[in-house]
Amino acid sequence: MMDIRAIKNDKSYFWTNHSKYKILQYNLSPTAIKRVIKYPERTEEGIAPDTTAVMKRKDGKKNKSEVWVMYQKNIKNQSRSAGSKIKNKKISAGKIRIISAWIYPGVSPKGKEIFIPEDVWDEIKGVT
Q1: Dihedral angle, C-alpha 92, 9, 24, 21, nearest 10 °
Q2: Contact criterion met (CB below 8 Å) for 106 and 65
Q3: Which residues pair with 98 in a beta bridge?
Q4: Domain of 67?
Q5: How do residues 47-81 score in pLDDT, each as one tens digit?
Q6: Cβ-count burial of 21 within 10 angstroms (0-12 exposed, 13-18 middle, 19+ buried)?
Q7: Domains in the chain: how many in total?
Q8: Is there a domain that residue 108 lies in?
Q9: Residue 45 pLDDT grade (very low, low, confident, very high; cuts 50, 70, 90)
Q10: 115 assigned to some structural domain
Q11: What does the DSSP assignment read for 13-53?
Q12: pLDDT of residue 127
């Protein structure tokens, strides 16, 4: 089992805490998430402001499912809010900010809004 500390930010990707926990919850790997972003089978506008949602099929012998990733691309330099636990944490320009990842069982409908939990909205807005 992967440890959350093993998921590290690098020169191209910034992982939100929410995305790290979802990776563990769904037993995904950071490499699998990056692969979905680089080679998506479907791309839709994310439900959150300035986000993109991408999907790649993950079909087994019996079950069909989709791996979804919501991210922001080409974000500007940002500092976390003063009330945040981590102060003065910079997110470099040009990084992809991975907001969430999940597995959708079956085949998702195209172009319909998806439910995003309130904690994800808070993290997108910078409130933690």
Answers
A1: -40
A2: yes
A3: 15, 71
A4: 8-125
A5: 888 899 999 999 888 889 999 999 998 655 554 44
A6: middle
A7: 1
A8: yes
A9: confident
A10: yes
A11: EEE-HHHHHHHHHTT--HHHHHHHHHS-SEEEE-SSTT-EE
A12: 55
> How many residues appear in the chain?
128
Q: Roughly how many angstroms between the first and final C-alpha of the chain, as a whole number?
A: 26
Token duo for residue 30:
């950071």
**Predicted local confidence at residue 125, as pLDDT:** 72
Checking DSSP bridges between strand 78-79 and strand 65-72, what pairing results, if any?
unpaired
Residue 1 domain flag:
no
CA distance 62 to 73: 35
26, part of any domain? yes
What is the three-class DSSP state of 120? Answer: helix
- Report phi then psi at 25, rounded to 5: -60, -45
To which H or E segment does residue 119 belong? helix 118-125
